[in-house]
Write a structure and sequence with these properties.
0% strand, mainly alpha, 10 helices, globular
Length: 319
Amino acid sequence: MAREACSTPSSTSSRPMVHSVFTAVYASPVPYPVMTPNTVKTQISRLTLTLAPLVPNQQLSASLLRQLTYSTTRFGIYGSLKSHLTPPFPSPDSTTQSPPTTPPLSTLLLLAIPSGLFGGLAGNPADVLNVRMQHDSSLPPPLRRHYKNALDGLVRMVREEGLTSLFRGVGPNSARAVLMTTSQLASYDAFKGLVLRWRGGEGEGDVSTHLVASAAAGFVATTVCSPVDVIKTRVMSASAEAGGKGGDGGKEEKKKKESLLKLLRRVQRAEGAMWMWRGWVPSFVRLGPHTVATFLFLEQHKKIYRGLKEGVGGEGAEV
């Protein structure tokens, strides 16, 4: 009888990390053709050039590395923490347990903060590399880096600029990761709970439930993260050579630390308050489908995992 009992949250704490690894791999190519925030004409041409050849573009390796580090960490930690607060999903023959309930939004937000923080720290090197490879073609020819792939980029960054280059812009990136996790993961669970209550459903819902909840989460995440995205992109795409001019390294390091506040003031004076949502439409075109694909893959992967788990458990019970 003990083997037939449902798993406790402590025994399932490793599952969210497994789900997040596969989800990151599945969903990372979805927004790739529209990830670079340039003009619409450039986006269309890049979309054509990216989809036309059958060989993968080398920049996709940076996107995959970013998702494997950043998304895996934040999804895994968030799911592990939430599993301790959510009752285990009941087996089909169980009549004693009620379906899992969604924790309050305030609790979800609290769980998302450390998840996003650690995700931002883990994914910062790949994020810097990803931004650089996306913007490399827009730089003057003498300043282009021409990274061959993600591994080549990381090795060259450490060799040419030192280990600190891997954590360039870690402050804005970590803040953005916290905002992204709270506005994307926590809001998805909240929207899914609302849809399930409105439809009178139970359990994890069907594909239509996941589609509606993920689309709403993508809208919220794009709106919340837009200001930090603008700052993060400008900081990370800054040339290392521009920051390295001058003879006094201490003064240059101090200048780098003060540059974020100066950048905010300059952008506010030049562009007004609307700079915070500059490029919202291309950001939503990128993040919206990515959020939908991410949660659809995640929910289906969890469903398949549960089916395999129940099948193995059923065979063991018969034996």
